[in-house]
């Protein structure tokens, strides 16, 4: 494991990231890199259960999205736009020497990943979108989240979100406590500003331009992104696979991390084999 907690400055934004590389030095061929982009009110550690299926064959890059985790949004010139998040991704790929890479995003991170694929298709080898909406207006209203945060604070908001993320029996108690704490330590400004940007983003007329392999992973009961909406995205993409996980809500990439990692590893193996 190398490069834990490295810091990258992008347009006066501080992005904290890890590079995990335990691939055998005798493996032939070009370096394979997978870059992960999480969603609202989370941090880069949420992907840990995905890694066992990937680290023997791929270098992994995890980072805290701007405004989340250790990538705090400081100063007055804050840029919450999804276009800025795409620039963060590309700058990070440059920093780790990944001319081309596989991109994985969940929730808002998945929407940003779609935009990145449209913005810089020459950089991205495959794209994996987990519990992802291509039409941001389908998500919960900014006003509801703002009122909730004003009334009960971030700890109360985090508690309110948990049933939307997971079924009652969906994750262990330690996992639930960790996830709850991560949500509660995010700032209200970050949550509201990111959601506002997402609601203003509509890619439904553009995703047909994504001429690269796309894997869609989704739970059957996300209250934020319906399975029907993801099926619509699947139908608009020229080269996509869709896997629906039963008994899974919006927190699928955390509750089903091992299974998602295995699905991604199989997808990448097929891509390398030209399947």
Structure commentary:
The chain has 275 residues and is an alpha/beta fold. It has helices spanning 82-95, 108-119, 142-165, 173-184, 188-199, 227-236, 252-255, 257-273; strands at 2-10, 13-20, 33-37, 59-63, 101-106, 124-130, 214-219, 240-245. Strands 1-2-4-3-5-6-7-8 form an eight-stranded mixed beta sheet, with helices on both faces. α3 packs antiparallel against α4 (173-184) and α3 (142-165) packs across α5 (188-199). The model has no long low-confidence stretch (mean pLDDT 95).
Task: Briefly characterize the structure.
InterPro entries: AB_hydrolase_1, AB_hydrolase_fold, AB_hydrolase_sf. Helix content is 38%, strand content 19%.
β-strand number:
8
CATH-defined topology: Rossmann fold
Give the total of domains.
1
Shape: globular
End-to-end span in angstroms?
31 Å
Q: From the alpha carbons, calculate the radius of gyration and give it in angstroms.
A: 17 Å
Describe the largest sheet. 8 strands, mixed
Q: What share of the residues does DSSP label as strand, in percent? A: 15-25%
The H-and-E topology, N to C, reads as EEEEHEHEHHHEHEHH
Name given to the CATH architecture: 3-Layer(aba) Sandwich
Helix content: 25-40%
**What is the mean pLDDT?**
95
The CATH class is identified as Alpha Beta
The total of helices stands at 8
Backbone structural class = alpha/beta
Order of strands side by side in the largest beta sheet? 1-2-4-3-5-6-7-8
Protein name: Pimeloyl-ACP methyl ester carboxylesterase
GO cellular component, one term: membrane
InterPro entries: AB_hydrolase_1 (IPR000073), AB_hydrolase_fold (IPR029058), AB_hydrolase_sf (IPR050266)
Pfam families: Abhydrolase_1
């Amino acid at each position: 494991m190398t490069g834990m907690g490295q810091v990258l400055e992008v347009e006066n934004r501080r992005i904290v990231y890890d590079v995990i590389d335990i691939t055998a030095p005798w493996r032939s061929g070009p370096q394979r890199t997978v870059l992960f982009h999480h969603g609202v009110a989370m941090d880069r550690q949420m992907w840990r259960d995905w890694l066992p299926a990937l680290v023997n064959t791929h270098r992994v890059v995890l980072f805290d999205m701007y405004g989340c985790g250790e990538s705090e949004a400081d100063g007055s010139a804050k840029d919450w736009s999804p276009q800025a998040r795409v620039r963060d991704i590309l700058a990070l790929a440059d920093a780790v020497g990944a001319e081309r890479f596989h991109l994985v995003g969940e929730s808002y991170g998945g929407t940003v990943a779609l935009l990145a694929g449209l913005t810089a298709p020459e950089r991205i080898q495959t794209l994996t979108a987990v519990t992802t909406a291509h039409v941001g207006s389908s998500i919960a209203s900014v006003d509801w989240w703002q009122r909730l945060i004003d009334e009960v604070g971030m700890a109360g908001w985090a508690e309110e979100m948990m049933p939307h993320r997971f079924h009652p029996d969906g994750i262990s108690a330690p996992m639930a406590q960790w996830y709850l704490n991560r949500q509660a330590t995010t700032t209200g400004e970050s949550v509201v500003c990111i959601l506002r940007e997402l609601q203003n983003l509509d890619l439904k007329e553009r995703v047909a331009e994504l001429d690269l392999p796309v894997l869609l992973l989704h739970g059957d009961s996300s209250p934020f992104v319906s399975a029907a909406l993801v099926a619509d995205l699947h139908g608009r993409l020229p080269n996509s696979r869709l896997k629906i996980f039963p008994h899974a809500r919006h927190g699928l990439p955390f509750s089903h991390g091992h299974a998602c990692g295995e699905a991604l590893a199989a997808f990448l193996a097929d891509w390398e084999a030209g399947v």
